[in-house]
Design goal:
Strand content: 5-15%
Helix content: 25-40%
Number of helices: 4
Distance between the termini: 26 Å
Largest sheet: 2 strands, parallel
Number of strands: 2
Structural class: alpha+beta
């Protein structure tokens, strides 16, 4: 019997969402993560965005962003978090798509 190890991939969502753009796009991020998950269906994916992400995306994407945060589809540090002091704890790393 062969045992397959599930890979846990941590995605830098802020960089992917901003690739080739001046402002991040939640749609671009979603498309990229969906394509990755199709290629690696057994991988566990955690998408992390920076604390300003929800304020920099298009207004039409904010409701979808908030829903993704509520459903643990995205991880973002709390508002006002300092890059140097923000650490992800183990509770943040249990998000599955």
């Amino acid at each position: 019997m062969t045992c397959r190890v599930t890979k846990h991939i941590i995605v830098d969502g802020s960089n992917i969402a901003t690739e080739g753009r001046s402002a991040p796009s939640l749609a671009q991020l979603s498309d990229a993560v969906t394509a990755f998950m199709k290629e690696y269906p057994n991988a566990k994916v955690t998408v992390v965005v920076d604390a300003t992400f929800g304020h920099r995306i298009a207004k039409k994407e904010v409701a979808e962003f908030n829903k993704a945060i509520e459903h643990n589809e995205l991880v973002a540090p709390p508002a006002g978090a300092d890059r140097k002091s923000t650490r992800l704890n183990s509770s943040h790393l249990v998000i599955s798509y």
